Amino acid sequence: MVKIAILGYGTVGSGVFEVVRRNRNAITNKIGEEIEVKYVLDLKTFEDDPVMEVLTSNYDDIINDDEVKIVCETMGGVKPAYEFTKRALESGKSVCTSNKELVEKHGPKLLKIAKANNCSYLFEASVGGGIPIIRPLRTSLAQEEILSITGILNGTTNYILTKMETEGLAFEDVLKRAQEKGYAERNPDADILGFDACRKIAILTSLAYGKNVDYADILTEGITAVTGTDFAYAKKMGATIKLFAKSLKKDGKYYALVAPFMVTSENPLYAVNGVFNAILLNCNMGGETMYYGKGAGKLATASAVVADVLDCAKHIGKNLDTKWDEEKLEISPVDSAVRRFFVRVLGNDLAGIQKIFGEVELYDGVAEGECGFVTGEMSEAEYRQRAAEAGNVITMIRMD
Amino acid sequence: MVKIAILGYGTVGSGVFEVVRRNRNAITNKIGEEIEVKYVLDLKTFEDDPVMEVLTSNYDDIINDDEVKIVCETMGGVKPAYEFTKRALESGKSVCTSNKELVEKHGPKLLKIAKANNCSYLFEASVGGGIPIIRPLRTSLAQEEILSITGILNGTTNYILTKMETEGLAFEDVLKRAQEKGYAERNPDADILGFDACRKIAILTSLAYGKNVDYADILTEGITAVTGTDFAYAKKMGATIKLFAKSLKKDGKYYALVAPFMVTSENPLYAVNGVFNAILLNCNMGGETMYYGKGAGKLATASAVVADVLDCAKHIGKNLDTKWDEEKLEISPVDSAVRRFFVRVLGNDLAGIQKIFGEVELYDGVAEGECGFVTGEMSEAEYRQRAAEAGNVITMIRMD
């Protein structure tokens, strides 16, 4: 019997409580140990909820109870989650969390504290919700050099883009519907401006290379500028538009970026629709692997937290080491990243376009008074220079 | 420094040697230990190959060397792989393998021996090549009840079906080309008749439920009967045809089947083309997750073996427990499995069809003298009875 505590009885915390109870038999059968929730920490009370039997509002009850070996931090935010996590780890209790903000901000520090105290800090649920991606990176792919990571890491924006594509709706209209359905927050900025995806790619990239990526170093563009006309071009090109969170290693340099991309059907991420998330990894030995599933949602996220709990339960008194040093991983300026660009310009003067951008593939007749084209490979800096020279660019979307 | 031995310097074995050498730095960096290949066992010699420095033809060299903690069994087949594996485990050396035949046949027995000797028997590479699926089942999804597994587990047949679809070629022609390209064996029966996929779904199902599935209990149909006309219907239906290896738990009963299925674009497996493999799991908490990648190939498969090596290296002297008992998992007869069926019949007598099959969706005009339709839900037994009554069925493909 392994006893655990849950910090915060919100969406994810109550989900953890539910997963542990409903799948008690499956869990005991699989790991040969029973998991019991001894405490749930919350300041609120929850009438007629079985949680009342284990509810406490005093964190000391948990910290001072030597029977509690594992703490699930499902509070979110940095304060007081950081202090609570630190205290748990310092008293030798492993911490499993879904809190991507805290992981992104203090991951390496908390991992170090865990190691020093022979316990673990695990955060499978912080990226990709119910999709196993953190543990595969740490275990199944430990023998690989990760060449690139491309993720659809935010369900809200993927839902919006999918609806824009399939129902021909404008961004604002879909956002409104998504808010009504609870797929988007009332303040949707963290999602639609790309910050949520940015935190997640910062975490994945740090894990892939073992050093710390500062998410402020990652150029982040959201989806607010994507229009129905862009999708009309995409359709003509046999492509779609996805918000990609990408990082890659090339010639010893590291690049990272969050932005809308034109994605053709050859990319396995092309078919990832609605609120689903997926992560495509390219490794130097095993090649491409992709991981797909629900990127959010109470039970999917809670399930990932519980997976971490079971891992800790099998390793009581031991540190499950995650390589993520405090040393900074230098992200190269996006200027030097080389790729192709989809560009929409006023008019349809092919000769003029080719004079500036070189040989291009032209898409005409999609919208009045303009045309679109795909450039050859060039650096971002070079693209920007040429776009300024052209002076008639309506919009640009990077090609995958 | 952890010393390992490789049994067999064929495709996978030489791949393991290569992965360990080429990714030496990445590995040491990630797990904090260097991995060194101390022996490679093979009866042949390999001039001008660095393997010559560590080559031996005497298995006793390996068994009697206490420095060797991990053995990679990449010989394939049951003899002498079974004896070699058993001896290694009995002397406390962990074994990592790509040998699906041996795993399917003797998995539970070898796992028991490993446990008794405080070492591990790991076989990530036996299913899905470079796709992490065995370890996620054992760790990331240990808290889940697996409701169903649907896999595209054989690259050869998926390549053939993809080519039939995209190039409109006949089965025999694509098979011939696949053989020329080395994507299909000279004797392709194990692939095209579904036996390879059957072994793999037997392994996955055993792991999902912790008891032993006998692969002889799984109804297995290959792809040899699939024709261009079937694909013409699929196209009309917005679907494609995939060889699915499926198992599921329903009302406390277990079902398993390998057969071609009509797959619509809503299924994430729809877009898995060419030699790629993918596994879609449905779990009672986290919902659907999918794992995608190269199902075969030297380096992808070898990479999965090395992932297991690193896991063993981090747990020397400890058993990594895999729940897979010798007790038999009863597979219910497919007769009682309920689903919809795509059926092609001679003629296009809708009234006659509906009299026998009930309300159907009709597809006419695809091929001369026949029509196709999709039935409502019924059991396999019921379908067979009605098909016999109709007397004019050309072919049937199960609907996903």
Which structural class should the secondary elements of chain A be placed in?
Answer: alpha/beta
Unreliable residue runs of chain A = none
Please tally the helical runs of chain A, counting DSSP H or I stretches of 4 or more residues. Answer: 14
Shape of chain A: elongated
Residues in helices of chain A, as a percent range: 25-40%
How can the largest sheet of chain A be summarized? 10 strands, mixed
The share of residues in extended strands of chain A comes to 25-35%
The rounded Rg of chain A comes to 23 Å
Q: What multimeric state do the chains show?
A: homodimer
Average pLDDT metric of chain A: 96
For the largest interface, the chains and their residue counts are:
A-B, 55 and 56 residues
Question: How many beta-strand runs of chain A?
Answer: 18
- How far apart the termini of chain A lie comes to 49 Å
